[in-house]
Specification:
Blueprint: E1 15-19, H1 24-35, E2 39-44, H2 48-60, E3 65-69, H3 78-85, E4 94-97, H4 112-140, E5 143-148, H5 163-183, E6 188-195, H6 205-212, H7 223-235, E7 245-248
Parallel strand pairs: 1-2, 1-4, 2-3, 4-5, 5-6, 6-7
Helix pairs in contact: 1-7, 3-4, 4-5
């Protein structure tokens, strides 16, 4: 039964895969999905301890979840190995990609390895996962995909210190809108969320203070509030925000 348009939706009975779901924004999204009734499959990339801690936190809230650890390296075959692992995870109704390396360098200092790794893990990885899962979502008549861009990558801009990263993240807009178009009429929706400055456990105290000086009103967003807003768009049925590229940055400007 479809909910009234605009009503906050539950995700009871849905299975969600969160790439990069063991911490930061991904961890908050895992919790938000679970709080709405989804069973959550949490991917962790480098730390078994962090993954187990996240799974323990979900279990403590009565959320059904499982996890798997797979380090995503910027080398040929890394993305293919993750795609090949998808059938072993069972049905995936919701895909979230909250993973992507960041490199801060001028263009002159950005080398070929930087370009390859950022294009592979920030753009090709979510694209390959979406391509692999879209047919089954379409066949079932329901699916949701949530992608995360970077700060202010909702449009084409010049960047003085992270152009390679921003180029890959800006390219996700083409993927999101293409997924929305192909999924239209089949119950499949895609949203691209572009966060602003978010306070996660990965920030050092010095970084946190530096970012506060740039943040609107001097306040960094909490990962939980970002997750609630983004997942709320996915839970709506129908997904009228499908194809949207949305900045969750509170009016950030540099």
């Amino acid at each position: 039964m479809k909910q009234a348009q605009g009503e906050a939706g539950t995700l009871d009975g849905r299975r969600a895969l969160v790439i990069g779901g063991s911490g930061g924004i991904g961890g908050a999204v895992s919790l938000e999905l679970g709080s709405r009734g989804a069973y959550v499959i949490v991917h962790g990339g480098s730390s078994r301890q962090r993954l187990d801690s996240t799974l323990g936190g979900l279990a403590g809230r009565g959320i059904g979840a499982e996890g798997f650890l797979l380090r995503l390296e910027p080398v040929p075959g890394s993305v293919a190995r993750l795609v090949e692992a998808l059938p072993s995870l069972g049905v995936v109704d919701i895909l979230v990609v909250a993973f992507g390396p960041f490199v801060r360098k001028t263009l002159a200092a950005t080398n070929a390895a930087d370009w390859e790794s950022l294009a592979l893990l920030d753009l090709a990885l979510p694209g390959a996962l979406a391509s692999a899962l879209l047919p089954a979502m379409s066949a079932r008549g329901w699916g949701r995909i949530l992608l995360f861009g970077g700060s202010r990558t909702d449009g084409i801009r010049a960047y003085s210190s992270n152009a390679a990263y921003a180029a890959a993240k800006t390219g996700l807009a083409v993927l999101a809108k293409s997924l929305a178009a192909e999924g239209a009429g089949r119950g499949v929706g895609c949203v691209l969320a572009c966060p602003g400055l978010v306070d996660t456990e990965y920030l050092a105290d010095s970084e946190r203070e530096s970012l506060r000086s740039l943040a609107p009103g001097g306040r960094l967003a909490g990962p939980g509030e970002l997750a609630a807003a983004a997942v709320g768009l996915l839970a709506a049925d129908p997904c009228i925000a499908s194809g949207a590229v949305i900045s969750f940055d509170g009016g950030l400007s540099f």
